[in-house]
Design a protein that fits this description.
two-stranded antiparallel ribbon, mainly alpha
Length: 308
């Protein structure tokens, strides 16, 4: 029983990390109706800006760690603000009221541009990132199970960060004027403009918020795996999470991540030996495919009703 709980708990914590990336997708889709394929590239760009700024301030200018870390986060946030401004000014503004597939293809172009730009400016090496989060393994529930349950402190901190993000974003969308305007823009671009909602400003705000979420995700994933270009593949891992949780639900991104993370870990450990291994690679996508057949809008997604 202790081993099962250890695998389950490890999978849940891994799912939280997937959810951090999925949150960026949800934000932009919920507020603009655009599926932002560039979210993985935004995570990479934010993480590269953070780690390179932190290294420079510590190694070249010899700043204290706390001051250097805060300044590096501010610099990376400024970079994501520039990305949001450029995406709205140069791409989205030109495509107002276009079909969703056109906007989706535009974000694919943004993806390749960001990857090339980040590689040119920050380099393509693997950079270790230390943001002060503990990474040591710890044992929990030793009084209940022999040897306890082994977990990583970094994963626990990631769960805390994700919970705070979800709570903050939920309040932002439900309780603030800007949040309500974001939802109005997602429903109908033209109708939102007709009642005086500035579409360009709203899109900039939502891409900025998604960029800051990408910064948080990049910081956590970079601390765990190192900052490297494989971080862009997190966008693909977030797709099953979105399908299960729903493309428009902030809490759904967390629940979907927990289901995917726990499911793939349990399947790999308990079914992998009898099926040849490698289940963790494809398990999430098979679950998402089966889920599409039953509830395509996701657990928390809004059911789409078209009247003709």
């Amino acid at each position: 029983m202790g081993f099962f709980l250890e695998v389950l708990f490890g999978g849940l914590l891994a799912g939280v990390l997937y959810s951090l990336v999925a949150l960026g997708f949800v934000l932009i889709f919920k507020a603009s109706g655009v599926f932002n394929f560039a979210q993985g590239a935004m995570v990479l760009t934010a993480a590269l800006a953070l780690v390179r700024a932190l290294d420079f301030l510590q190694q070249e200018w010899h700043w204290p760690f706390g001051v250097a870390l805060a300044t590096a986060f501010l610099f990376a946030g400024f970079i994501m603000a520039l990305v949001a401004w450029a995406a709205e000014k140069l791409v989205l503004r030109k495509l107002v009221n276009q079909e969703g597939i056109i906007l989706f293809m535009a974000t694919i172009g943004v993806t390749f541009f960001l990857e090339g730009f980040a590689q040119t400016v920050f380099g393509a090496d693997v950079y270790p990132l230390n943001i002060g989060l503990p990474k040591e393994p710890i044992f929990l529930l030793e009084s209940l199970f022999d040897g306890g349950i082994l977990v990583n402190e970094l994963d626990i901190w990631a769960a805390v960060i994700a919970g705070l993000l979800v709570a903050g974003l939920a309040l932002f969308f439900q309780r603030t004027r800007i949040g309500r305007a974001l939802r109005a823009v997602a429903d109908d671009h033209a109708a939102a403009q007709s009642v005086g909602i500035p579409l360009n400003q709203i899109w900039f705000i939502v891409w900025l918020v998604a960029g800051l979420v990408a910064l948080v995700a990049g910081a956590v994933w970079g601390s765990k795996l190192g900052v490297q270009f494989s971080l862009t593949l997190l966008a693909l891992k977030a797709l099953p999470v979105l399908i299960l949780g729903g493309f428009t639900s902030v809490p759904g991104a967390i629940v979907g991540g927990l289901i995917i993370g726990a499911g793939e870990k349990l399947a790999e450990v308990f079914l992998g030996p009898s099926m040849g291994g490698g289940i963790e690679i494809w398990f999430a996508y098979v679950v998402a495919l089966l889920f599409l057949l039953v509830r395509p809008q996701g657990l928390f997604g809004e059911r789409i009703i078209e009247r003709v």
